[in-house]
Amino acid sequence: MSVSEDLQTYVERLHKRLSIVENKQAIHDLQNQYGFFLDNRMWDEAADLFCNDSPSMEIGQRGNYIGKERIRKFLVEVLGQGRWGLQKDEIIHHIQLQMVVTLAEDGQSAKARCRALVQGNSPPGRGHMMLAEGLYENDYVRENDRWA
Known about the structure:
Blueprint: H1 3-39, H2 43-48, E1 56-58, E2 64-66, H3 68-79, E3 92-103, E4 109-120, E5 130-143, E6 146-147
Antiparallel strand pairs: 1-2, 3-4, 4-5, 5-6
């Protein structure tokens, strides 16, 4: 094997490793955006993170919602109880921990699992804080050169 062949193989291997790192980071960023949008009651922005081809969502055994419009409706009506944005003195924090991302060999889909700790006083003025925890077990796809 010539030196140029060895260099070519090395560059290809590095390119593959870099692609894996970049894809995993993009999925971490996507999951963090989701938490931020939920925390701030930004329902349209949260729904827009989902893929266009048969997205689904299930939270807290409240049903499985399929399609972006059904997801948006669930976010607004069930989670948001019709409210958009935070009220004065309202706090909601989705703290997402221990995320493990597994990419498919073809780099077009992935699975991730992480733990969520949720704290808040939604709505404010109730006199107590809410604390919840759960697991996210998500599937992701590359769609139009972005993760969803």
